[in-house]
Fold this protein.
Amino acid sequence: MLPELRPMWWESGMGARAAASLGTVAIQLPRLIATALAIAWRADRTRTLTVGLATVVAGVSAAFGLLATQKVLIGLLAAGPTPQRVTSALPALIMVAAAAAVRAGVGIVIGYAQSGLAPRIEAEVHRRLLETTSLVELAAFDEDAFADDMERASRGTNAAVFLVDGAFALIAGLTGLLSVAVAVIVIHPLLLLALLVATAPTAFASLRAGQQRYRTYLAGSVRRRRLNLIHQLMADRKPAPELRTYGLREFLLGQFDRVMTAETRIQLDLARQVTTTTTIGSVTSGIATGAVYALLAWLLLQNSLPLSAAATAVIALQAASRSLATVTFQVDRLYTEGRHFNDYAEFMTRAAAEIPDTTGASNAGPLQELQLHAVTLSYPDRDTPAVDHVTLTIRAGQTVAFVGENGSGKTTLAALIAALRTPSSGHITWNGTRLTDLDPAAFRNRIAVVSQDFHKWPFTAATNIGMGDTVNLPDRDRIEAAARLAVAHDMIEELPHGYATLLDRTFADGQDLSGGQWQRITAARGFLRHSDLLIMDEPSSALDPRAEDALFQAIRDRQGHATTILITHRLANVRHADVIYVLDHGRLVEAGSHDELIAAAGRYAELFTMQARGYGEQQK
């Protein structure tokens, strides 16, 4: 399937709502409300309790206001002079005003509490997601399903806020309906049935129309993505030159017209369906409302209902309609957002299973000896192992090199040593203790990794280097010393703001660096830590000859007092290594010093000779 045709994250919740019957939605509502309240309670108990109590008070005041309104009407419609009737109705009128004031005040309290609750919910849910994803095994990110689940889970952080807001709004709507029902029962029990008959058709029609909209929206997902793609192709800067060079304007406009014509036709069909559904609901509700008015008239004629009660019933009917409109809207919203939050909750459960168990883990002491015992790593989507039964020993103070052709397993082997990946079989020990038995954070504080696939962190130059030791919070002198080792100091000083220069052009006054300059920053970050073990994976691939020579001199200076694993294709830079390990298709095929491997006339000698010959031919 083409990338632009893949289902998007926001459609999963809508799909669940479109597929669910109204009965299913009704059954799920209590669970969704309970989930929302639990989220809010964890985020801020005081505000959650405030909103809950205020919502109840609002409902009670609404019922009180309706009953007070009836008393006002009784006073005004009673026999006698007008001043006397007004005086008689005045206490009830004060109660109506008081109920209205309470509802207004409660509304302010609810708005204030919810405005403070929303950011706390988002912060807690989002932080929990980040805490979890930053602990999972690196191997989890290799799985497409994990990446898709994480994308949907990220939507769940916003869904949590919407879920809580929707739950409180739904509770408010239901409370309003309940208060009206209570007031109507007090006026006349028969009016409750009439109220249900008058409002139920509209509610059913609204929910049904919402389901029709969801289904049509999902069916049009491919068309919308195609329209967005065409918009990008015709309005963005990057494709603009080729669009003009090849005269693609008419072609793309033709694509737009075909897709838009289909979309317009479908939207017109939807409009007819929704109009039909809502019209039937409105007509049915209108007939039922007429029947309610007829019932009120009959009760009046039978002297079973005073005129004041009938007038109050009409007001109650209007209030019930407003509350019901809120309820039907929030039901759809709550179910949809609940589905998104379920994605979040399911991902958190799955991700938790990918987090290593550090219970009883040991601290890693200073490196004395690192050993690999028949270590194998197989990726799920490959037939052959990336690392195949490798056994080797690295001692403190040694400089060790991993060499081999592309795909030989060098980088994967380094990732295993750095505990970024877990062997499929075999094990690795640090001073005789398996890496899996060491505390991951304590172990990683003793190593530094300079990766060939480095990330360009959007921070200042100083921060980019200082990130190499977030435990000891390095000062400026340490940062500059590390930069000098990586031949980065002079380059950084030439930036507009020196070490304070932001290395991201998307921000104001930000700067971008060349590949070689970024590589120096990355190497400086590795030098900063003064680690027991420094792993450098292709640290000079983008450096100029002068910078490369200075960098490898800094690496050679570590020899004898700090341990270094060096991975590079430039074999002239590993001649000084104590031991050179040669890999081929994941297997360790040779090991020894440079002189020993040249004398053995094996794979290393072949690769070194080929490279040396190339340099010799360039010099001629």
